[in-house]
Amino acid sequence: MSTFWSLWIIVLTVTNLVLLLWLLLVNRRREVKGPDTGETKTTGHEYDGIEEYDNPLPRWWFYGFLASFVFTAFYLYAYPGLGNWKGAKWDEYQDSWTSVNELRYDQQQAEELYQQTYGAFGKMPITELANKPDAMRIAQTLFMDNCALCHGADAGGNPGFPSLVDKDWLYGGTPEKILETITHGRKAAMPAWGSLIGEESVANVAEYVLGLSGAEHDKTKAELGQKVFSANCVACHGADGKGNQQMGAPNLTDNIWLYGKKPEEIRYTIRQGRNGVMPAQIENLKADKIHLLAAYVYSLSLE
To answer: How far apart are CA 148 and CA 298, in angstroms?
Structure first.
């Protein structure tokens, strides 16, 4: 800012403060009683029989205004407010106050606090971290903020979103696999078979799959469905139906169903396919927080 405009702002600011102070003091000196009669003065305003007294400000109010002028003087000394004056030096900002300096200071404080919590936990192995109650309390909060919407507050899952407490893992339950899943996400690829095998075969395969899990099923249809299963499904689910974690193909023999175990729900899955998505968290969370979340999910399998 040029010297002229700096002086212009200083003059305007100081002049306004002086005028306001003068106005406050002048009104303080007004008489409360009339000079001759001793009656209380009024301003002459009247409405519905109600008159306005011409009294000065209460003492506490008056002193409150004076205190605001004292505060203003200290404020204009400490912070930029008078043209090119940058304000007093602040040790924590290593310079005078600016919004940028305050932001950097707050970021530095936040980073120091972060390193005392997430930073320290991020250096521990997941297996060790999973047994630290203080770490798991923080991790549970992270889970509630970022994962509970899909997996549930109790991590018990929802239709289409797997339970994290049943020890059944689509992509593996080792610390490394859990960390990989949270970091990079997963995308299911169960193809739609309805148009390829026909509705009758869809129904037969559904009965066969029900039989794999020990559920009640039609044995005649299941025998026909086994042939279709062997020709089309074993590449992912395996000849024994136990799945393949490398491909994210679920185990069909354990009576744990991601999209429902009713016959019509299984038929829908075979007919239409499924394309569930686990979003990658690498763009939303720092690596230390993802590491802590992985430890929390891993800890659920230890209970």
So the answer is: 15
Half-sphere exposure of 93 (CA within 13 A, CB side): 16
- The alpha helices in the chain, defined as continuous H runs, are 3-28, 59-78, 99-114, 120-121, 126-129, 133-146, 148-151, 175-184, 194-212, 219-232, 234-237, 263-272, 287-300
Q: What is the pTM of this model?
A: 0.67
pLDDT tens-digit readout, 63-101: 999 999 999 999 999 999 898 888 888 888 888 888 899
Reading the block at residue 270, the tokens are 């075979």
Burial of 183 (0-12, 13-18, 19+ CB in 10 A): middle
Alpha helices in 233-286 (DSSP H): 234-237, 263-272
C-alpha count within 13 angstroms, C-beta hemisphere, residue 51 = 8
Q: Which residues contact 283 (CB under 8 A, 6 or more apart)?
A: none
The token duo for 234 is 């074993």
Using a CB cutoff of 8 Å and minimum separation of 24, what contacts does 284-289 make?
Answer: 284/146, 285/142, 285/146, 286/118, 287/122, 287/183, 288/114, 288/118, 288/119, 288/121, 288/122, 289/118, 289/142
Q: Are 143 and 292 in contact (CB under 8 A)?
A: no
CB 235 within 8 A of CB 227: no
